[in-house]
Structure formats: structure tokens, C-alpha cells
Amino acid sequence: MSSPNLHPMINVAIKAARAAGAIINRAALDVEAVRVSQKQVNDFVTEVDHASERVIIETIMTAYPGHGILAEESGTEHGAKDSEFVWIIDPLDGTTNFIHGFPVYCVSIALSVRGKIEQAVIYDPSRNDLFTATKGRGAFMNDRRIRVSKRTRMNECLISTGFPFRTGDNFKQYLAIMADLMPRAAGLRRPGSAALDLAYVAAGFSDAFFETGLNPWDIAAGSLLVTEAGGLIGNFTGEPDFLDQRECLAGNPKIYGQLVPLLTKYSKFAGVDDKMAASDRIRAVDSSKDLYARSTVDLQQPDGSDGSAAPASAAAPAPRKLTRARPPVAAPADPAGE
């Protein structure tokens, strides 16, 4: 259902997203019957992805035949090739979740105008949650204004991410990042849909999100939701030009500011010194038998810059004296029987 108060292009995107969501919901009733193929290792596509993408493109092209299209499954095959208006489409973000019946997936549609995202829709069909944003007009979830969280201390924060799953992904680097973040945060989550992760940051359900290896259709719509909800988004070094850089960090301003110094050394755009520091950290974590114990060493800075107060100095524990327990000696029997 469209709203007269929304931008006309958002209304078209909502119509397209809901049509795609209807296809997804019907298929979810019997997910075992869905035909699945594999694009590459651990990267799946289904007939539902293709059907969803077709209905989105048809809806948009009917309304705006002169616009361009960049879609996950069909690329730039449809739409005008030289338009300043380009719709960036992920018809089913979270396909692996979908084919397992795990209800964390969504439809993501964004409009780029001269390279800047100006309209965004993310639709979660399993919950019927609709996230929308128009540049300069704020972000909304089901017609309710949303804002990023107000948390300022890292140890109170829930941070979402995506684990590496493709051949060639730097798994050891992710282990090092998790070793740096897990002891500092209240929790680290991997829901499996980057678009929905960003929508949740915008709504304040989580405080930050980071991931590498992402494509524009994974993050285009979510990026506008985050900024219109008062958050920040960029690459791991904090630079705002991130859409095509395959690394993304988003969060409320305070937590974003604390995460950039932690993640900078793991960015492909990091300087030589930072990259050397990242290599040292990766080797230290990789060689450890106890990942979590090693990760907690030297977390606190003198100023408590990890987002929590520096702990009071504690006295070294007193050495414990070990004694061997002896079994009790039985009393001799009384010869008188008394």
C-alpha cells in the first residue's frame, strides 16, 4: 500500500518490494520444493531470487522506463545504460537463510541519482516489516520514525557482522577482528543478511555492523537508512566512499568512532604500519590455543578508550598453598565391646 506522504519513487519501490515479498512468502511455505543452484562455494541462488528480481524490475521499468538497473542476478542487463537514475536491487538478501527456513532475509531496493543513494526500501516479508528512507526526510519502519541507538559504551553494545564464507576470504583476519571485539562488546551477532543488519542499526536494534566482501546491492539501501536515522557509515578507515570498496562499517556516531581505530588496521586501505600491526595480531591469534584468553590481554587503554571505564588496579592474588587430604583413621575397636 502506498502513502501520499511518501516520495513517488519510494511508493514504486514499496510496490515492487511487496510484490517480491509475496513471491518469497509463498515459496517459504514449502521451501524444500524450491530449486537451488550454486553460483560459487557457499553462494546460492534460487528460482525465488530470479522470480523476485523479475517482478521488481518489471514494476520499476513500468513506472520509470528511462532509468537504469543494477541487480544482483541480472547485473545491468535491464534498463537504460546511461541514465543518471540507477535502481540497485537485491531481490533476496539472505538466500542461504531462506533455503534453510531460517527467517532472516529481505528484499533491498535503492535508487542512486548521479552516484548518490536518494531512496531506499528494505522489506522483511517474514515479519512484514517495511523500512524506508528518502534523502533528507528521515528513516522509517512501518511508518514510524527510527533513530540509531544512543549507547556510548562499547561493553553495552550489540554488534552484527558477517563471517567469511567464500573461497579466498581471509578467515584468519576475521578471527583476529572477533578476538579484538568480542571481549569489548556485549555481544557479536551474525544474522546472515547485510541489508537487514543495516536496517537494524538504523532502528537501534543493534549498535553497529561491519563486514567485508559486500557488493553495492547488499548495502545501498541500508546505507541511506543508517544516515537518515542519524548514524554513520563508511569503510574500515572511516572514509565515506565505501559503496564499491567491499568493506563496510556502520553504527551510531559514538560507537562508530570507537570502532574505526580498532578496524582501521584490517582495512585494505590501511597504511603500511597499520597493516604490519594487523599481521602481527593475526599471527598472535592464529597461534593461540585459547583465542578468548589471548584476546583479553592489553584491551584497556590508559584512558579507557575501548568504551568502558578503566578498571581499578587489583592486587596480585595471594599464592595458594596446596595440601594433600588424608583419609580419616578409624578408631581402634573396644575389646570390651562398649
UniProtKB/TrEMBL annotation:
Low complexity bias: start-end ranges: 302-338
Keywords from the UniProt entry: Hydrolase, Magnesium, Metal-binding
Sequence segments annotated as region (Disordered): 298-338
Alphabetized InterPro entries for the sequence: IMPase, Inositol_monoP_metal-BS, Inositol_monophosphatase-like, Inositol_monophosphatase_CS, Inositol_monophosphatase_SuhB
EC number: 3.1.3.25
Names of required cofactors: Mg(2+)
Enzymatic reactions: a myo-inositol phosphate + H2O = myo-inositol + phosphate
PROSITE patterns: IMP_1, IMP_2
Molecular-function annotations in GO: hydrolase activity
Pfam families according to UniProt: Inositol_P
Residue spans crossing the bilayer: none
CDD domains with a match to the protein in the record: IMPase
Similarity field: Belongs to the inositol monophosphatase superfamily.
PANTHER family hit by this protein: INOSITOL MONOPHOSPHATASE, INOSITOL-1-MONOPHOSPHATASE-RELATED
This protein's name: Inositol-1-monophosphatase
UniProt organism field: Variovorax rhizosphaerae
